[in-house]
Amino acid sequence: MKDTTSTLGWIGAGRMGAAMASRLIAAGNDVTVTNRTRAKAEELGTKVVDAPVDLADRDIVFVMVSANEDLLEVTTGPRGVLSDPGSAPRILVDCSTVSTETSAAVRAAAALRGTSFLAAPVSGNPKVVKSGGLTMAVSGTPEAFAVAEHYMNQICKGVTYVGDDEVARLVKICHNMMLGIVTQAMAEITVLAEKGGVKRSAWLNFLNDSVMGSRFTRYKTPAFVNLDFTPTFTPVLLRKDFDLGMHAAYEHDVSMPLSALCTELVKASAGAGHVTDDFAVLLLEAARASGLEMVPENIAVDDGLGG
Predict the structure, then answer these.
(1) Can you give the pLDDT at residue 36?
(2) Per-residue pLDDT band at 127 (split at 50, 70, 90)
(3) Phi then psi for 122, rounded to 5 degrees?
(4) Residues 241, 97: contact at Cβ < 8 Å?
Protein backbone atom coordinates (compact mmCIF):
# COMPACT_ATOMS: atom_id res chain seq x y z
CA MET A 1 0.00 0.00 0.00
CA LYS A 2 1.39 3.40 -1.01
CA ASP A 3 2.23 5.89 1.71
CA THR A 4 0.52 9.20 0.91
CA THR A 5 0.33 10.91 4.31
CA SER A 6 3.92 11.28 5.51
CA THR A 7 5.24 14.64 6.57
CA LEU A 8 8.25 15.58 4.46
CA GLY A 9 11.42 17.55 5.06
CA TRP A 10 13.81 18.88 2.43
CA ILE A 11 17.44 19.87 3.00
CA GLY A 12 19.11 21.88 0.25
CA ALA A 13 17.42 24.53 -1.90
CA GLY A 14 20.07 25.11 -4.51
CA ARG A 15 19.06 25.05 -8.18
CA MET A 16 18.64 21.29 -8.24
CA GLY A 17 17.19 20.87 -4.77
CA ALA A 18 14.72 23.68 -5.28
CA ALA A 19 13.47 22.21 -8.55
CA MET A 20 12.98 18.78 -6.97
CA ALA A 21 11.34 20.07 -3.79
CA SER A 22 8.99 22.20 -5.90
CA ARG A 23 7.51 19.07 -7.44
CA LEU A 24 6.68 17.64 -4.02
CA ILE A 25 5.17 20.95 -2.95
CA ALA A 26 3.13 21.24 -6.16
CA ALA A 27 1.78 17.72 -5.54
CA GLY A 28 0.18 18.97 -2.31
CA ASN A 29 2.48 17.32 0.22
CA ASP A 30 3.28 18.69 3.67
CA VAL A 31 6.86 19.84 2.99
CA THR A 32 9.17 21.83 5.27
CA VAL A 33 12.46 23.10 3.82
CA THR A 34 15.81 24.25 5.16
CA ASN A 35 18.82 25.66 3.35
CA ARG A 36 22.10 27.26 4.36
CA THR A 37 20.85 30.51 2.80
CA ARG A 38 17.35 30.83 4.22
CA ALA A 39 16.15 33.23 1.51
CA LYS A 40 16.52 30.51 -1.14
CA ALA A 41 14.31 28.17 0.87
CA GLU A 42 11.72 30.89 1.34
CA GLU A 43 11.42 31.28 -2.45
CA LEU A 44 9.72 27.87 -2.53
CA GLY A 45 6.65 29.26 -0.78
CA THR A 46 6.35 26.59 1.88
CA LYS A 47 7.29 26.21 5.56
CA VAL A 48 10.95 26.99 6.28
CA VAL A 49 13.09 26.15 9.32
CA ASP A 50 16.54 27.38 10.33
CA ALA A 51 18.53 24.14 10.42
CA PRO A 52 18.37 20.46 9.46
CA VAL A 53 17.89 19.48 13.12
CA ASP A 54 14.53 21.26 12.97
CA LEU A 55 13.35 18.57 10.54
CA ALA A 56 14.00 15.71 12.96
CA ASP A 57 10.27 15.29 13.59
CA ARG A 58 9.43 14.80 9.90
CA ASP A 59 8.57 11.29 8.69
CA ILE A 60 10.74 11.38 5.57
CA VAL A 61 13.58 13.85 4.96
CA PHE A 62 15.16 14.33 1.54
CA VAL A 63 18.67 15.74 1.12
CA MET A 64 20.17 17.38 -1.97
CA VAL A 65 23.58 18.93 -1.33
CA SER A 66 26.81 19.37 -3.29
CA ALA A 67 29.55 17.29 -1.70
CA ASN A 68 30.62 14.74 0.91
CA GLU A 69 31.34 17.37 3.56
CA ASP A 70 27.95 19.00 3.04
CA LEU A 71 26.11 15.71 3.53
CA LEU A 72 27.99 15.02 6.74
CA GLU A 73 27.26 18.54 8.00
CA VAL A 74 23.51 18.38 7.41
CA THR A 75 23.13 14.86 8.82
CA THR A 76 25.68 14.14 11.55
CA GLY A 77 26.94 17.68 12.19
CA PRO A 78 26.14 19.69 15.34
CA ARG A 79 22.82 20.90 13.85
CA GLY A 80 22.31 17.97 11.54
CA VAL A 81 19.01 16.18 11.10
CA LEU A 82 20.34 13.24 13.16
CA SER A 83 21.70 15.40 16.01
CA ASP A 84 18.53 15.65 18.15
CA PRO A 85 18.78 12.97 20.89
CA GLY A 86 15.01 12.89 21.27
CA SER A 87 13.82 12.71 17.67
CA ALA A 88 14.88 11.47 14.23
CA PRO A 89 13.17 10.99 10.86
CA ARG A 90 11.69 7.62 10.01
CA ILE A 91 13.48 7.64 6.64
CA LEU A 92 16.36 9.73 5.31
CA VAL A 93 16.69 9.92 1.51
CA ASP A 94 19.92 11.34 0.11
CA CYS A 95 19.80 12.42 -3.54
CA SER A 96 23.29 13.94 -3.59
CA THR A 97 26.23 12.55 -5.54
CA VAL A 98 28.72 11.55 -2.84
CA SER A 99 31.29 8.84 -2.25
CA THR A 100 30.36 5.35 -1.16
CA GLU A 101 32.38 5.84 2.03
CA THR A 102 30.50 9.00 3.01
CA SER A 103 27.17 7.39 2.23
CA ALA A 104 28.04 4.35 4.34
CA ALA A 105 29.06 6.58 7.26
CA VAL A 106 25.73 8.42 7.18
CA ARG A 107 23.84 5.13 6.84
CA ALA A 108 25.56 3.82 9.98
CA ALA A 109 24.79 7.02 11.89
CA ALA A 110 21.16 6.88 10.80
CA ALA A 111 20.85 3.26 11.90
CA LEU A 112 21.98 4.22 15.40
CA ARG A 113 19.02 6.61 15.54
CA GLY A 114 16.57 4.05 14.18
CA THR A 115 16.36 5.87 10.84
CA SER A 116 16.32 3.99 7.53
CA PHE A 117 18.71 5.49 4.99
CA LEU A 118 18.13 5.40 1.24
CA ALA A 119 20.87 6.40 -1.19
CA ALA A 120 18.96 7.93 -4.10
CA PRO A 121 21.24 9.80 -6.55
CA VAL A 122 19.55 11.30 -9.61
CA SER A 123 20.28 11.85 -13.28
CA GLY A 124 19.37 15.24 -14.72
CA ASN A 125 19.56 18.97 -14.08
CA PRO A 126 17.01 21.61 -13.04
CA LYS A 127 15.53 21.91 -16.54
CA VAL A 128 15.20 18.13 -16.73
CA VAL A 129 13.48 18.16 -13.32
CA LYS A 130 11.00 20.82 -14.47
CA SER A 131 10.24 18.90 -17.67
CA GLY A 132 9.47 15.78 -15.61
CA GLY A 133 12.39 13.80 -17.01
CA LEU A 134 14.49 13.14 -13.89
CA THR A 135 15.53 9.57 -13.08
CA MET A 136 16.67 8.09 -9.78
CA ALA A 137 18.55 4.99 -8.61
CA VAL A 138 17.80 3.87 -5.06
CA SER A 139 19.50 1.48 -2.64
CA GLY A 140 18.69 0.57 0.94
CA THR A 141 16.11 -1.68 2.55
CA PRO A 142 13.15 -2.70 0.38
CA GLU A 143 10.83 -1.76 3.25
CA ALA A 144 12.03 1.85 3.37
CA PHE A 145 11.92 2.08 -0.42
CA ALA A 146 8.30 0.88 -0.45
CA VAL A 147 7.34 3.78 1.83
CA ALA A 148 9.32 6.49 0.02
CA GLU A 149 8.70 5.37 -3.57
CA HIS A 150 5.41 7.23 -3.88
CA TYR A 151 7.13 10.56 -3.21
CA MET A 152 10.11 9.72 -5.41
CA ASN A 153 7.74 9.13 -8.30
CA GLN A 154 6.34 12.63 -7.82
CA ILE A 155 9.85 14.01 -8.41
CA CYS A 156 11.01 11.65 -11.16
CA LYS A 157 9.74 9.95 -14.29
CA GLY A 158 11.78 6.85 -13.48
CA VAL A 159 12.73 5.39 -10.09
CA THR A 160 14.78 2.18 -10.04
CA TYR A 161 15.49 0.14 -6.93
CA VAL A 162 18.99 -1.29 -7.48
CA GLY A 163 19.75 -3.16 -4.24
CA ASP A 164 21.02 -2.84 -0.69
CA ASP A 165 23.43 -0.47 1.01
CA GLU A 166 25.46 1.81 -1.31
CA VAL A 167 25.07 0.24 -4.75
CA ALA A 168 23.05 3.23 -5.99
CA ARG A 169 26.23 5.30 -5.62
CA LEU A 170 28.04 3.03 -8.04
CA VAL A 171 25.10 3.23 -10.45
CA LYS A 172 25.32 7.05 -10.45
CA ILE A 173 29.10 7.04 -10.91
CA CYS A 174 28.79 4.60 -13.82
CA HIS A 175 26.10 6.81 -15.32
CA ASN A 176 28.25 9.93 -15.12
CA MET A 177 31.26 8.16 -16.61
CA MET A 178 29.03 7.15 -19.52
CA LEU A 179 27.96 10.79 -19.79
CA GLY A 180 31.55 11.91 -20.21
CA ILE A 181 32.49 9.17 -22.65
CA VAL A 182 29.47 9.80 -24.90
CA THR A 183 30.10 13.55 -24.86
CA GLN A 184 33.77 13.09 -25.75
CA ALA A 185 32.83 10.78 -28.63
CA MET A 186 30.16 13.24 -29.79
CA ALA A 187 32.71 16.08 -29.64
CA GLU A 188 35.39 14.28 -31.65
CA ILE A 189 33.01 13.16 -34.40
CA THR A 190 31.43 16.62 -34.60
CA VAL A 191 34.90 18.13 -35.12
CA LEU A 192 35.56 15.63 -37.89
CA ALA A 193 32.28 16.48 -39.62
CA GLU A 194 32.87 20.24 -39.39
CA LYS A 195 36.48 20.07 -40.50
CA GLY A 196 35.28 18.05 -43.48
CA GLY A 197 32.93 20.86 -44.50
CA VAL A 198 29.65 19.91 -42.78
CA LYS A 199 27.78 22.46 -40.65
CA ARG A 200 27.55 21.35 -37.05
CA SER A 201 23.79 21.88 -37.00
CA ALA A 202 23.33 19.73 -40.12
CA TRP A 203 25.49 16.90 -38.79
CA LEU A 204 23.80 16.92 -35.39
CA ASN A 205 20.33 17.08 -36.90
CA PHE A 206 21.18 13.98 -38.93
CA LEU A 207 22.63 12.24 -35.87
CA ASN A 208 19.62 13.00 -33.70
CA ASP A 209 17.18 11.66 -36.28
CA SER A 210 19.21 8.47 -36.78
CA VAL A 211 19.29 5.26 -34.77
CA MET A 212 22.46 6.59 -33.10
CA GLY A 213 20.71 9.68 -31.79
CA SER A 214 19.36 9.83 -28.26
CA ARG A 215 17.58 12.14 -25.90
CA PHE A 216 20.99 13.09 -24.57
CA THR A 217 22.58 13.93 -27.94
CA ARG A 218 19.55 16.07 -28.77
CA TYR A 219 19.72 17.76 -25.39
CA LYS A 220 23.41 18.68 -25.88
CA THR A 221 22.94 19.83 -29.48
CA PRO A 222 22.14 23.51 -28.67
CA ALA A 223 25.39 23.79 -26.70
CA PHE A 224 27.36 22.23 -29.54
CA VAL A 225 25.74 24.33 -32.27
CA ASN A 226 25.76 27.70 -30.51
CA LEU A 227 28.75 27.14 -28.22
CA ASP A 228 26.62 28.05 -25.22
CA PHE A 229 28.37 26.50 -22.26
CA THR A 230 26.10 27.74 -19.50
CA PRO A 231 26.84 25.13 -16.85
CA THR A 232 24.59 22.20 -16.08
CA PHE A 233 27.52 20.03 -14.94
CA THR A 234 31.12 21.23 -14.93
CA PRO A 235 34.32 19.41 -15.96
CA VAL A 236 35.46 19.70 -12.33
CA LEU A 237 32.42 17.77 -11.10
CA LEU A 238 32.71 15.28 -13.95
CA ARG A 239 36.35 14.68 -13.13
CA LYS A 240 35.35 13.92 -9.53
CA ASP A 241 33.02 11.19 -10.77
CA PHE A 242 35.62 9.75 -13.12
CA ASP A 243 38.09 9.62 -10.23
CA LEU A 244 35.50 7.80 -8.10
CA GLY A 245 34.73 5.45 -10.97
CA MET A 246 38.37 4.59 -11.62
CA HIS A 247 38.82 3.95 -7.89
CA ALA A 248 35.85 1.55 -8.02
CA ALA A 249 37.34 -0.12 -11.10
CA TYR A 250 40.58 -0.68 -9.19
CA GLU A 251 38.71 -2.13 -6.22
CA HIS A 252 36.71 -4.52 -8.41
CA ASP A 253 39.61 -5.36 -10.74
CA VAL A 254 37.84 -4.08 -13.87
CA SER A 255 39.88 -3.00 -16.90
CA MET A 256 38.61 0.37 -18.19
CA PRO A 257 41.08 1.74 -20.77
CA LEU A 258 38.55 4.01 -22.49
CA SER A 259 37.42 5.44 -19.16
CA ALA A 260 41.03 6.02 -18.13
CA LEU A 261 41.67 8.03 -21.31
CA CYS A 262 38.48 10.02 -20.87
CA THR A 263 39.47 10.79 -17.28
CA GLU A 264 42.60 12.50 -18.59
CA LEU A 265 40.66 14.41 -21.27
CA VAL A 266 38.16 15.70 -18.72
CA LYS A 267 41.04 16.65 -16.42
CA ALA A 268 42.70 18.52 -19.30
CA SER A 269 39.53 20.47 -20.04
CA ALA A 270 39.40 21.69 -16.46
CA GLY A 271 43.13 22.43 -16.59
CA ALA A 272 42.54 24.56 -19.69
CA GLY A 273 40.42 26.88 -17.56
CA HIS A 274 36.91 25.54 -18.19
CA VAL A 275 36.20 25.13 -14.49
CA THR A 276 32.81 26.88 -14.46
CA ASP A 277 31.65 25.97 -17.97
CA ASP A 278 29.42 23.08 -18.91
CA PHE A 279 31.26 19.85 -19.64
CA ALA A 280 30.16 20.22 -23.28
CA VAL A 281 33.35 22.31 -23.59
CA LEU A 282 34.95 18.98 -24.40
CA LEU A 283 33.91 20.03 -27.92
CA LEU A 284 36.17 23.11 -27.81
CA GLU A 285 39.10 21.07 -26.55
CA ALA A 286 38.59 18.49 -29.31
CA ALA A 287 38.49 21.32 -31.86
CA ARG A 288 41.61 22.96 -30.44
CA ALA A 289 43.51 19.68 -30.62
CA SER A 290 42.58 19.47 -34.30
CA GLY A 291 43.43 23.07 -35.19
CA LEU A 292 39.79 24.03 -35.75
CA GLU A 293 38.49 27.39 -34.57
CA MET A 294 34.77 27.08 -33.91
CA VAL A 295 32.26 29.94 -34.02
CA PRO A 296 28.64 29.92 -32.81
CA GLU A 297 26.02 29.29 -35.50
CA ASN A 298 23.52 31.41 -33.50
CA ILE A 299 20.40 29.56 -34.59
CA ALA A 300 17.41 28.23 -32.65
CA VAL A 301 17.86 24.56 -31.78
CA ASP A 302 15.37 22.32 -29.97
CA ASP A 303 16.87 20.56 -26.96
CA GLY A 304 14.09 17.97 -26.90
CA LEU A 305 12.97 18.82 -23.36
CA GLY A 306 10.09 21.10 -24.28
CA GLY A 307 9.18 24.26 -22.42
Answers:
(1) 95
(2) confident
(3) -120, 160
(4) yes
| pTM (2 d.p.) | 0.88
Percentage above 90 pLDDT, the chain: 91
- The structural domains of the chain, with segments of one domain joined by +, span 8-165, 170-289
Buried b (16+ CB within 10 A) or exposed e, 210-233: eeebeeebbbbbbbbbbbebebbb
The residue among 53, 57, 11 whose CA lies nearest residue 35 is 11
Residue 266 contacts by C-beta under 8 Å, 6 or more apart in sequence? 180, 184, 235, 238, 239, 242, 279, 282
Nearest-10 Cα torsion for 183, 184, 190, 192:
-170
**CA dihedral of residues 30, 8, 97, 53 (deg, nearest 10):** 120
Burial profile 166-203: b = 16 or more Cβ within 10 angstroms, e = fewer: bbbbbbbbbbbbebbbebbebbbebbebbeeeeebbeb
* Number of other CB atoms surrounding residue 49 within 10 Å: 17
Domain 170-289 has CATH 3.40.50.150: no
pLDDT tens digits for 243-277? 989 999 999 999 999 999 999 999 999 999 999 99
Give the Cα separation of 136 and 291 in Å (integer). 40
Please, what sign has the CA dihedral across residues 234, 236, 240, 242? positive
How many contiguous H segments (helices) and E segments (strands) does the chain have?
Answer: 12, 9
Distance of alpha carbon 16 from alpha carbon 301, whole angstroms? 24
Rounded Cα–Cα distance for residues 208 and 213 (Å): 4
Q: What kind and span of H or E run contains 18? A: helix 15-26
Q: Return the H-helix or E-strand segment holding 72.
A: helix 68-76
8-165 placed in CATH 3.40.50.150? no
DSSP helix/strand/coil, 96: coil
